Amino acid sequence: MDGYVAGPDQSPENPLGVGGERLHEWMVVTREFQSQHGQSGGEHTADSEIAARMGSGVGAHVMGRKMFGGGDGPWDTTWRGWWGDEPPFHAPVFVLSHHERAPLEMAGGTTFHFVTGGVEAALARAKEAAGDANVQVAGGASTVNQYLAAGLLDELFLHVAPVVLGGGERLFVGVGDPTLTPVEVVGSPTVTHVRYRIGR
Amino acid sequence: MDGYVAGPDQSPENPLGVGGERLHEWMVVTREFQSQHGQSGGEHTADSEIAARMGSGVGAHVMGRKMFGGGDGPWDTTWRGWWGDEPPFHAPVFVLSHHERAPLEMAGGTTFHFVTGGVEAALARAKEAAGDANVQVAGGASTVNQYLAAGLLDELFLHVAPVVLGGGERLFVGVGDPTLTPVEVVGSPTVTHVRYRIGR
């Protein structure tokens, strides 16, 4: 509600910050999310269809160093991401970083590539890897804001959870004045999904 | 999009701040809004039904001193609000103020009352005036935030315009952790309307 996509006091033990996990609850409880993460539980909810679409049609992902984790200095190469041996991406993931690191091949089709050339370079590599499929910028806030500011996104899919975090990392900071047009709205009792097309 | 309900650099000449009027454009273009403001123009749009509902069933309004205008010091009693001789409220309006002022009766059923006792006192007077009808807290941001923080609102009707203002006055600042449940979502090509029920 208040624009924060992660709560205050982020730490290795609490990467989404205080209260940040509440933003994702609508998704985590779905059977579709559980299945994408190799689990068999979960419920069929009003948000299931949206959860099922999250990674579909995506040929490559881009994420920030903080979302991948492992500190912000030179790499501790024992760090292999937050997602265990088989991350839920099943596609190449291009991680923005200030430090070189060899690609990291995981089970299930996910390979993390570390890109030091900035957002345009990471996007170019992701586009090449994705071919005709889409590239998804996964997050976090700072990464999405950089892509918005650079005018490099075609769409933004926003999921407004009815949660006030009161601090943390905000979306839409330093992004200029993008032209956004809502093209799809799906409401549920737990979250409001709005897909925007972004003009140039 | 970025939580600002008024833009930066608010002034008597530009009370909504730079870009702030873009937030209300969806409403101002409707025939329903124009008619409420004594004009005959406007269009029938996907947002018309929402615009028509804005003031309906409302027996009294509450607003902040800044929304009413006229500076923030002792009253210049020549100031009669931004809305001309016949304001669009057609009901008593209770204006939060630090300075006493006699009630101001306008044409068309609007009387401005100036309340120095704070948000609870203003609400009590508005409730009494409204009888069985609703009390609407009109704004601005600081007033809505104070009512949210005090747990005095039953509903919040949010209209998310696809506009990034980059500065100004933000909603949901200092409001604690209210329990919000989306109960109605209406999407249009220009704005997303979400009505929330607020728990205690």
Strand content of chain A: 25-35%
Number of strands of chain A: 10
Instruction: Please tally the helical runs of chain A, counting DSSP H or I stretches of 4 or more residues.
Output: 6
Q: Span between N and C termini of chain A? A: 26 Å
Helix content of chain A: 10-25%
Summarize the structure.
Two copies of one chain form a homodimer. The first copy, chain A, is about 20% helix and about 25% strand.
Describe the 3D structure.
The structure is a homodimer of 200-residue chains. The longest helix of chain A is centred in the middle third of the chain and has 12 residues, at 119-130. Helix content of chain A is 20%, strand content 25%. In chain A, the strands form three sheets. Chain A has a five-stranded mixed beta sheet with strand order 4-5-3-2-6. Chain A has a three-stranded antiparallel beta sheet with strand order 7-10-9, with no helix packed on it. Chain A contains six helices and ten strands, in the order βαααβαβββαβαββββ. With 200 residues, chain A is α/β, with parallel strands linked by helices. Chain A has one domain: Dihydrofolate Reductase, subunit A, CATH 3.40.430.10. At the A-B interface, strand 9 and strand 10 of A face strand 9 and strand 10 of B.
